[in-house]
Give the backbone structure.
Amino acid sequence: MAFRKKNEKLLLYKPDILIITECESDIKLKFDKLIARPNNFYWYGDNENKGIGVFSYSEYKFELIEQFNPKFKYIIPLKVKSDTDEFILFVIWAMDNKENYEARYIAQVWLAINYYNDLLDKPSILIGDFNSNKIWDKKKRLGNHTDVVNFLKQKKINSLYHNQFNEKQGEESIHTFFLQKNIKKSYHIDYCFASENFLLKGYKFTIGNYEDWISLSDHVPIFIELNS
């Protein structure tokens, strides 16, 4: 939250696309005053203090896909286009569901990818805070973490982290979330899954260091460099 107070450190990396969960709307961000104006910006949320923000500091532009189902309100399917590229970007912030306990967190992702099944046949990236890990598979859900991973694998969509570091789901050596900002309470719950063609062209996956980022958030950023 309060990204307007934290943006400078991330913008030093000159991202082509920047994805922020728990992000303020443009009303709060005050482009040109508090944060550099992006070339294109998409925001979705019920509360102007806390939604999903997607920024383009490059030629990429965003368009909400017509099939968007607000039932899965924080799993946002965007068409990302430039003069030479086009792909589907699913921005994910897996949320609690107080009305249906079994449809919360990773179950929300499970229901959404089944709903968007046909879209996943196109070049796709799914990225964000999944609030999930295989270690919690036994919790009662409509679909668990392993179900999601296996479904995406059938679509030839795989986790960039696990592919690069050759680690198994649930056995991650590098963590992305620190409960109460405590380094001893850490988990790997942020992911980037991408279609096979992205993997074949080559990429680099990096996770920010706890010491460098913990003053700003209980999550550290993930950085994805994709070859054109």
